[in-house]
Amino acid sequence: MGRWQRPPLGPLAAVQLHITKANPLIEGRGHSPLCRHAQHSAAVVRGDDLLAVADLMARTDSDWCSKCGGYALRRLTDTQLSYYCAAHRLHDVNERLDSQTGVPDSDPSAVIACLDELATWQPVDEAESCSSDSWQWQETVRDLTRMAATSPAVTRPS
Prior knowledge:
This protein is mainly alpha-helical. Helices cover 36% and strands 6% of the residues. The chain has helices at residues 53-57, 78-97, 108-119, 131-150, and strands spanning 16-19, 49-52, 72-73. It has a 3-stranded antiparallel β-sheet. Helix 2 runs antiparallel to helix 3 (108-119). The chain is elongated, with a radius of gyration of 19 Å. It starts with 15 loop residues before the first strand and ends in an 8-residue tail after the last helix.
């Protein structure tokens, strides 16, 4: 089976994160402002850093707290939350189709119906649309549909 690519970040790329120490030159690990390991009170303070998810994922130079992960998300918009849920469903379908960890006897019509529904995902708010990522979303859905057609984890009717 081919290697599955994750869906693009899409609307989640702009989600803002609060981090206590995003600068790798500052000694110590980065924490969520609410982490009990952070050195200040459990609140967002003036010295905290604010990064976008896309910026954080592009970095390899920081040391993050193993308890809190190093950051706290700001509230998601309706489109971001909808996309997050849809991307999770894509990931779940991929897990079901994986030949090593897949769910045996998965119903192919249910898997394909789920993928058909995910193929039509649209942002709740068009202003938050990430059209440059939409082709990658569609390609991911197509790849998973091809996997569903050939996966040993999916049982075919006899």
